[in-house]
């Protein structure tokens, strides 16, 4: 019977920490504001947008949506991002991805001002994650993993962590953040030989492959803490993680559920980044990049 | 008895590959040129400068030194870097580090135009290593590891690689480059628990801690390929690597010696990057960043 590492207590603690900061901004006449840039009406995006709006509202953060038709040209998207950059009342921006196939996504991401890049999509933000220097925010999902591990006081120093999946949204940035905390990090992926053996060695496992329930019993052993970053739907349309929960739960020491796990923390981390960005804008108004 | 993975055949092959490219540049009226920016007279720097000049000369690459006194102010260094950036006849630049203590090294590095950053010291170059995108060159030492592994046809796909050391010069960038080649990469370091066990698991080991002969017999097993990135001096003043060569050599399958190993390949990689930068400048003259 694993301890369930639910997101709610982490979300509640973040909300507590943010409240006085948002109040202080309010006294300075600033409402922290998050732009959401969306193309088309993908159900994933709409669902995440609803969640983000609700969370923002409960915290006292404003949301400013920029919605473009799915077939809008690159120029329209770039104009929206220019507007986000130029508008001093906007402190952070979420650009929903993947973007439609006709859009040059890399080019679009680079347009966003790094100071407003609260989900770590620009090269500048990613460089700061890689180098422990520069400015910018790490991707919210990667940062959410650390928030949750810290909240539940999971030891990282000197420990072995397996990160399965090497995306720029989770795998690579979370590896760098874990390394900074003196973990010994193994980056593994679909081409790893004997993946189950590699994952079973680790004290902490971050499952971020985006493949529904691929991590079954053979990947786990007692003593492990497992973070399931996956948000997938199975053949029956049920929301599930990358971990086969029913197989893993009797084996490991601690496990994040899906839903009610990391996803909810990720939203809160984006809000926290937005508040930090608003504070930075207050400290250095009309800021350069 | 390990196979010795010496640098010379790699260097010779790189020279062969570069010769026709340098000739082609010559026909277009371009002499590929590497600036070397040095502060003071550190013996390490002088020694590396001599090696670089000799290698450059043998290939037909020009070297343009910028030498500043050790106590020169930040402004003088920045003026030199501005000159490097502005001079279209300079294609690449090596900035010797560590810089003197009174210099803001991070700020200085960022001044170099990424297109001339042939040793991967700018955030833009490091971001491109991290993201597999953007523009810029990886740090030469990291790239040299891949050149040597490829030359000796060491399999990487799916294999376990332990990278010991997490610097931005070798450990982190080489990990990203190995990951791109589908290796399973474990980043370990001074705070790793049971470091010898972790290293012994790997098929390929990159030793890059900068600590003389720290990797003794207990770190190794038959079947391993070991790259020794270290350039250290022992108590008697003898050049040695991070690996205890006498202990490792009877155990492992293949090993780079120090000297005559990776160091010499690194110099050639810097030259190759300079030629590539010159080709890029020819293709896009008066280039933006």
TrEMBL record, chains A, B:
InterPro entries: Aminoacid_DH-like_N_sf (IPR046346), NAD(P)-bd_dom_sf (IPR036291), THF_DH/CycHdrlase (IPR000672), THF_DH/CycHdrlase_cat_dom (IPR020630), THF_DH/CycHdrlase_NAD-bd_dom (IPR020631). The gene is folD. Residues 5-119 form the Tetrahydrofolate dehydrogenase/cyclohydrolase catalytic domain. This is Bifunctional protein FolD. Its EC number is 1.5.1.5, 3.5.4.9. The lineage of its organism: Bacteria, Bacillati, Actinomycetota, Coriobacteriia, Eggerthellales. GO terms for cellular component: cytosol. PANTHER family: C-1-TETRAHYDROFOLATE SYNTHASE, CYTOPLASMIC, C-1-TETRAHYDROFOLATE SYNTHASE, CYTOPLASMIC-RELATED. It catalyses: (6R)-5,10-methenyltetrahydrofolate + H2O = (6R)-10-formyltetrahydrofolate + H(+); (6R)-5,10-methylene-5,6,7,8-tetrahydrofolate + NADP(+) = (6R)-5,10-methenyltetrahydrofolate + NADPH.
